[in-house]
Records
---
Amino acid sequence: MFFNTKNTAVILIVCAVCSFAQSRPFPQAGKNGFIGTVIKPSNRTQDQLNQDVTKIYDSYKSRFHTQSGNKHYIKATGNGEPEDYPSGCYKKELTISEAHGYGMIIFALMAGYDKDAKTIFDGMNELRKAQKATGNSNLMSWVVCNINANGQVGGSATDGDLDNAYALLLAYKQWGDSKYLNDATTLINAIKSSEMHGSPYYRTNLGDWNKSGNATRSSDWMPGHFRAFREATGDAFWSQAADTVYNLLAQCSNPTTGLIPDFAKGQPAKADPTAGGTGEDDADKYSYNACRDPWRLALAYAHHGDAKAKSQIDKISAWLRGSSGAKGEPNNIKAGYYLNGNVLNEWSEIIFTAPFASGMIADKANQSFLDKTYGTIRTASSSNNEYATALQLLNVLLISGNWWAPYSSGSTPIVFEKLNQVKNAGVTVSKSGINLNIPDEKVVQVKISDTKGRLLLNKDITLNSGVASLNFPSSMTKSQLLILNVKGKNGLNVSQKILP
């Protein structure tokens, strides 16, 4: 039943199962479809792909997961200079926020296979909240040295906080406890406040300590995360942040190879050899930050259908297949490149090869190359490197189809018992489109999906004095029952069945 107020329609839902059992137990391949059209390795069955995931997961957990009391973490070390660490912390670190974020995502996705996943996740979340950043106490310190610390420790690292927030959204969808959504919302708002350059840039900064300039690090460019943050909070800022990633790629990546620099600055953005003043090596090259981008872009394409993400990773994959790249052979993939494709380092590493493989899922032209490259990454030994093993596992989760999205076509839509006319909420539907009259909103998000959860339209609409209209796309099938959702920042959240 709906109760209409001035601009809000609320549905009363009876909870059939009120325990917090996982709703998406591993394996999920084939159960939560991608929006983007992707391929998988053709020389492995789905059962074999699932087994690849669990084998790497078992190794990852046994080697790197640890706990102290009710707090859990992933054993990891940093690579900063002594002056980068809090007092007395250099070479005494227990974990790093980047590794922590990877771990929280992994345990949320592996629930169902691992009966302890929720306990571990909760323990990691407790540690995250206790180890506070110095610039914004709702962010996590980039380094943890004392497991019992409960206060502001060190500056933040943007990538760790972004992954932690995204993992909390996964946890909310996985276990249904609103505490995860509340924690995610608090963290997302803190990221926006302290780890994002505001208007006119809408780009990530380097951490809560980096308040000036417009320097940005490409390993923090996570458009899929930003799309999920938009869905979770209703804040159109995150749509702008996702779009900004693609603007940055157009400005500073190589037009032929598609390769991306580790750092960028300026407007328009260019590769930044100073690494935003941090002094990191090879900052204007495709190195140990940018190497994660094909995976992040593949996630945005698979989960949200971002065409610009596909365009970028298709360009990179085409270069890799060609004579100036890896010539279609995974053993030729090296650990770093100049943006023009010249080799930077002569050795190979899984943290470069695995994200390249994820990028290959976006186009069937990569099928043979993907088959070979996946064979390399699924069997690779990552020794005792916690980052390499995490990236190996995260990319295999995506390639195997087992990484579902907290908000996308993979989500199960709410299907209402009755059609509801929501004129009091300022949303009316005709045969040709949608009319909006919502004085309290400036920008609303309009989503239309079919009853199987496939997203057909996802668009932010700017209202002029509260009024706007949207015509149904010509590609939308007529006489098909659909789900319409209109969400605003100031309280509007309306859903109904429609029949164009």
Note: Confidence is low (pLDDT under 50) at residues 1-18, 409-424.
---
Amino acid sequence: MDIADFSNSRAAATDLQFGIWSPAETGFIPKIIEATALAFNSDHARWSEEYVRAKFIDGPWGPASTAIAIADDGTVAGFVSFGNCSLQVGDEQLKGGLSYHTFVHPAFQRRGIFSKLARLAVAHARGNGASILFNFPNPSSYPGFQKLGWTDIGTICSWIKPLDLPRILRVASASGAAASAFVPARASEESRDHLSRLASMEDALDPWRSNRRLKTVHTPQSLRWRLELHPYDYRLHASDGGLVVLRVGERRGLCEVQVLELFSAGNGRRLLCDAIDYAREEVGAQLLSMTASLFHPASVHLPLLGFVPMPNSVRFMALPLVPSTRSYATPKRWSISALDFHMY
């Protein structure tokens, strides 16, 4: 993107220009990486150029709608991006967008930059045919999205099931009962082998169909792209009940397997039972967890199979862009799992 492609409109800060990042202009990538390292204190600081290209430019549904603010010295002062996705409700598919990343450089905060960038990115997504956007904001970005008219859909809950209670009790006794965060294991030869099988699994990726709830559509290509963005230990377990997407890691010295999504012909309970057996017998896990929205087809089975709710949850927001999607601004109209979290 040449600087001439930017909007001439200015915020309160007259040293900034705002515009949509064109996929043809890759010269901003190092500046984007530098700005994220300052804005976040997490994995964002370790972005590579390959990651930025793969996520924001070369995604399976086309380049993301990304608005950036540039200072006169070339510093990226702010960044708001909505990635494309395909959504399905019943037999109908529609184009949607997922909020990827939002940040404002620490030196430029509290100057209205986020709001202006968000409006630009939303307008670009709408112009590209998106009919609804959704988002899992953190506590810092939530107020900003709320002020811009996004609807709070509620929370996405996490559930966990003990698979080896004696081992869990021994570890808890030795280290205390305080909860700790899940740490994903790094990708292994086994996980890479699992992802290589996706090309032959197209029939297994048919989601639970519902005439009332939106669900993200995945193809073998889009799912492999999604999982290969992050160097984690993902597993695919296929059975007669369908296909389970899993992630392996640990929590306080215990091996935990996370269920990221289920692709089932209809018997979700059976597929969850298959996941329990796989995690316990093939991985040797002591814990199995799943994060899903209240109206995800698996949610009704989780408590019946011994899963208990965890105290943490994720906020969920949506922004309808056309009149026909306004009815989706309610939790009853969505089926969300952890596979929909772009950083998971």
Note: Helices lie at 29-39, 49-57, 113-127, 142-147, 165-175, 189-196, 220-228, 268-283.
